[in-house]
Design goal:
216 residues, alpha+beta, two-stranded antiparallel ribbon, flat
Length: 216
């Protein structure tokens, strides 16, 4: 049975991204492991809230949820199990086939990925909470690799077109199903969907173009 991701966060099905993020932050603060050490129930609620936030902020995953499926269920999670076992990927393969697998294809990934939200704990006195206060904080963040200067390459050369997917960032295959032959597409395993490869990865950053975290 598909999970009720909206119910987990306590939001309506027409909730905006901002409302979903607000509901998640509220639950994350309440059930975070740092605030509830050795509390298995709180840890489970924190995990569920994090997963629901991830699903509902992803347009494709949210569409599957709205169709009655569960994008986090390997079998597809459709009510009644009608699409379970499709090509080993469940209902997500069907959506990829009809909405992303043919024609325009999926959007190629970028090597630069946004960082995750940081959750910081700050102690406030009662008077500070009432009147408001400004505090200086320290946040760990990745910095540009000083060895390859952000190229990810030992020789500082530009990335090359991936030979497996020819730069498309995806590979396609035909699968047989009860619908007939269906073409599905998946991120290229060689370039991880970026369409580019670095033949000589930097030893310092491993081709990520970022070095160890530094306080800012």
């Amino acid at each position: 049975m598909a999970r009720d991701y909206y119910g987990i966060l306590g939001v309506d099905k027409d909730a905006t991204d901002a409302e979903i993020k607000k509901a998640y932050r509220k639950l994350a603060l309440k059930y975070h492991p740092d605030r509830n050490p050795d509390d298995e129930e709180a840890a489970e609620k924190f995990r569920e809230a994090s997963e629901a936030n991830e699903v509902l902020l992803d347009p494709e995953k949210r569409r599957i949820v709205d169709m009655g499926g569960d994008p986090m269920d390997p079998s597809g999670g459709m009510a009644g199990g009608g699409f379970g076992g499709f090509g080993g990927g469940g209902v997500s393969d069907i959506f990829e086939a009809f909405f992303g697998g043919q024609g325009g294809g999926r959007q190629r990934r970028t090597r630069v990925q946004p960082g995750a939200d940081a959750l910081l704990r700050i102690s406030l006195g009662l008077d500070e909470a009432y009147t408001g206060v400004r505090k200086s904080i320290t946040v760990d963040t990745a910095v540009l690799c000083d060895v390859c200067e952000g190229t990810g390459s030992k020789s500082k050369s530009k990335p090359q077109v991936c030979g497996t997917c020819n730069g498309t960032g995806e590979i396609q295959q035909v699968q047989r199903s009860f619908l007939g032959n269906v073409m599905t597409s998946r991120p290229c395993p060689t370039c991880q969907g970026t369409g580019e490869v670095i033949p000589d990865p930097c030893d310092n950053c491993g081709a990520t173009a970022a070095s160890a975290p530094a306080a800012t």
